[in-house]
């Protein structure tokens, strides 16, 4: 199945704020990306939605939740490294 164009996408000129893009994937499920002004993907839906309205609703819920979110610094944890073989 051919990749479909986003339903909601950034304008042709460079956006001044991050944008959510809602699109259908190859399986026909709806997903979203949060794209930075430099074009990089900052976040993605992580799951596909059967209905476009449910995908858009998840974007709305995320936008509302971010307004209440707090930044929290987690303790630094050093994980053991696994030696790799040289090729």
CATH topology title of the domain at 19-66: Double Stranded RNA Binding Domain
Shape: extended
Structural class: alpha+beta
| Helix proportion range | 10-25%
Which residues sit in consecutive blocks of at least 5 with pLDDT less than 50? none
In round numbers, the mean pLDDT is 86
Radius of gyration, Cα only, in angstroms? 18 Å
CATH superfamily of the domain at 19-66: YegP-like
Please state roughly what percent of the residues sit in beta strands, choosing from under 5%, 5-15%, 15-25%, 25-35%, 35-45% or over 45%. Answer: 15-25%
Number of helices: 1
> What is the CA-CA span between the terminal residues?
38 Å
CATH class of the domain at 19-66: Alpha Beta
Total number of beta strands: 3
Biggest β-sheet, characterized?
A: 3 strands, antiparallel
For the largest beta sheet, what order do the strands appear in spatially?
A: 1-2-3
Q: Based on the structure given, which CATH architecture of the domain at 19-66 is correct?
A: 2-Layer Sandwich
Spell out the helices and strands N to C.
Answer: EEEH
Structure report:
By secondary structure, this protein is α+β, with helices and mostly antiparallel strands. It has a domain at 19-66: 2-Layer Sandwich (Double Stranded RNA Binding Domain). It has one helix and three strands, in the order E-E-E-H. The protein has one helix spanning 52-66; strands at 19-24, 30-35, 41-44. The protein has a three-stranded antiparallel sheet, with helices on one face. A hairpin with a 5-residue loop joins strand 1 and strand 2 (30-35). The longest helix is centred in the last third of the chain and has 15 residues, at 52-66. The radius of gyration is 18 Å and the shape is extended. The model has no long low-confidence stretch (mean pLDDT 86).
């Amino acid at each position: 199945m051919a990749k479909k164009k986003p339903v909601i996408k950034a304008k042709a000129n460079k956006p001044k704020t991050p944008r959510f893009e809602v699109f259908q994937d190859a399986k026909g499920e709806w997903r979203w990306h949060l794209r930075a002004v430099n074009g990089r993907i900052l976040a993605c839906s992580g799951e596909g939605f059967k209905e476009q309205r449910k995908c858009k609703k998840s974007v709305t819920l995320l936008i509302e939740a971010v307004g209440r979110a707090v930044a929290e610094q987690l303790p630094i944890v050093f994980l053991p490294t696994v030696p790799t073989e040289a090729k």
